[in-house]
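Record type: ASSEMBLY
Status: queued
Input:
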Amino acid sequence: MSDALQAPVCEVHKLWTEYGPTIIHRGLELEVRHGEVMALVGGSGSGKTTLLRHIVGLTEPTRGEVRLFGTVLAELDREGQRQTRNRFGMLFQQGALFSALNVFENVAFPLRELHQFDEDTIHLLVMHKLALVELEPKHAWLLPAQLSGGMVKRVGLARALALEPELLVLDEPTAGLDPDRSKKFVHLIKNLRQQLGLTVIFVTHDLDTLTELTDRVAVLADQHIVACCTLADLGKVEHPFVSNFFQGVRQRLDRLDQPGVN
Amino acid sequence: MADAAFRIEDYPGGGRRVVLSGCWSLREVDNNFADLREQLRPFFVDPFMHWDLTGVEQIDSAGAAVLLEGWGHTIDNRMELLPGQRAQFSMLAALPTRHSINAGHGRVKTLLRRMWDAYLNFIFHLVDFIGLLGALALEVLYLLRHPHEIPWKEISANVYKGGVMALPVTGLVGFMIGIAMSYLMALQLRKFGADIFIINILGLAVIRELGPILTAVLVAGRSGSAMTAQIGVMRVTEEIDALATMGISRVLRLILPKVVGLTLVAPLLVFWTSCWALAGGMVAANLQLGIGFEFFLDYLPRVVKPVNLSLSMVKALMFGLLVTLIACHFGLRVKPNTESLSASTTTSVVVAITAVILVDAIFAIFTRSVGL
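Status: finished
Output:
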């Protein structure tokens, strides 16, 4: 495939975010290539989630621009925005399922909004998405309040995948899951990425998730991206936060490299 | 990548086939599967039509699902598929269909069944409500033995929120209603030359009936809905459970202060609203009928017996209690979703107002010989 030659999925250029006197981002530069998995890491309050929200167009930066699939969302008309937004799916930290709708209706919602499918097809597609995230058909009739934390995330993922997006944006995909569940969830995302050819941008605090999933990692600190490289290359970056952070990563990378494990 | 497209080819030996090409995928934004399905419909129904998908660049689950539904959820040797596509289609075909799953759902309830459900629902509400009353009574007994645990701060906060903050709106509404009533009645009374009776009618109507009802409706809409929403959200965000784990009784700390605060403040609010309504009536009577303020105030106690004021205060206590109890009851029944929160808040206000009017009617019958 000509993946490498394709335009970057997401470009962030000279991005500034200011809330009154506090500056969160100071001229950020970031590029996410087609088909890669990019992780955003950084300390609490370093503006990871804010950056993610800029990328999906929920908020606008004070200055600078974010290009998604080569276009700036805010410059498009309504229909264009809708089409571009349908090209990515977002999984929110708390799932953000519509609490008044059951699992089936939640996943069917974006499909219905497209007005292209009849009920039978929608049913088939919802069942397919639920199967993708390893949920059983009987779970389709539960309400979000009746689901466990891991299931909420999986339903959120199914909803994000409903329109066959090219880009998946995940905000802390494994936060609030126990290690076992979080491992399963990471494997799920990994499998889906291979099956569906996804580009993934995600924010995480969890080093296990990071080492399992990531191609490249962007480290946010001191209002800048201080490093944007592969995990192994992080060791070459001289920055107190990065070197501190890398120690944890290296232990896990070493464990992965050992034969016989996994 | 090209858009999804198809063409019809004739086999040399007779028969036809549909040859699909392009990208049968949602990622191709120009694809419209509704149109494609419409165009393919005549070929879907033809049982001898063959389908060739080997020229398709890419097909995703959406494209596959549309085709599979068109083929009646079956794949047979009429379809020429690549191995990858065959796996994709058979995976989709293995999923449960809408009809196999929905058999148990969406059954229409009979009228009788629905009435029975409504009856049961009412009984559950009643049981819960009585449970709440019991819990409150126990807390009151507990507080009598441990007076230092009385939540004064919360009670005073509720007096402020439900009472002081409600002063402007109740005063304004009372004044306006007073003007409207007095103005309309003045027109009628003048026809009979019975101008002076405006004081009797206004005094009795406002003090005995309108003041309490008006205040109760306003309080139910203002404080009742706020209480239901607050308790409801606290339930959803598990704040109530957090209280319980700290060994703090939710009834004592949340419900009781609301009930006590609003019940105590209700008579004062009713008095305040009645005063403003009478003031409004007085102004209109002065303008319309030329009845002086001093005369009005002097004459009022002579035609409206003081016992009416007592009745009004008793009513106010009952209404305040009723509105808060109902608001708290519905707040505690909120389920953790947005729909339930809005439904509970609405129901709380509607039930509170209905209950107030019902109790008022019963009260009016029992006190028909008092103070008239």
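Annotation: The radius of gyration of chain A is 19 Å.
Annotation: Chain A has eight helices and ten strands.
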